[in-house]
Design a protein that fits this description.
The protein has 2 helices and 4 strands, in the order E-E-H-E-E-H. It is mainly beta and about 100 residues long. A hairpin with a 3-residue loop joins strand 3 and strand 4. Bound molecules: zinc ion (ZN). The site of zinc ion has 8 residues, from strand 4 and helix 2. Zinc ion (ZN) binds next to strand 4 and helix 2.
Length: about 100
């Protein structure tokens, strides 16, 4: 099974996936906050509760999140990653941003 994108929930064969490493002191990148539209959201806040409480209320698939004690690693696909402005990008796992 290919990895699943936590934002669009797609599992795509042959698609490059990006692990966004969030350390204990990192903020959540803006693009992960977008799915949550407050009162206009299709989902209630109660529906999306995560071990990492910073993610609560965000519409993310737990299958696309790696939860560890010291960090959370949302995994996003190439297309979702493409929405992000470069300046807002967190550090990738492995630090390979030179493509
Ligand atoms: Zn995606």
């Amino acid at each position: 099974m290919p990895p699943i994108c936590c934002v669009c929930l797609r599992q795509q064969h042959g698609t490059e996936m990006y692990d966004i490493v969030l350390g204990a002191n990192n903020g959540i990148p803006d693009y992960l906050l977008i799915p949550h539209n407050g009162d206009e959201s299709l989902f209630s806040d109660d529906e999306f509760q995560f071990t990492d409480r910073r993610l609560n209320g965000l519409v993310l698939d737990p299958c696309g999140l790696q939860m560890e004690r010291e960090r959370t690693t949302p995994r996003v696909c190439y297309s979702c990653n493409g929405y992000l402005p470069r300046s807002a990008m967190p550090r990738y796992a492995g630090g390979d941003t030179g493509k």
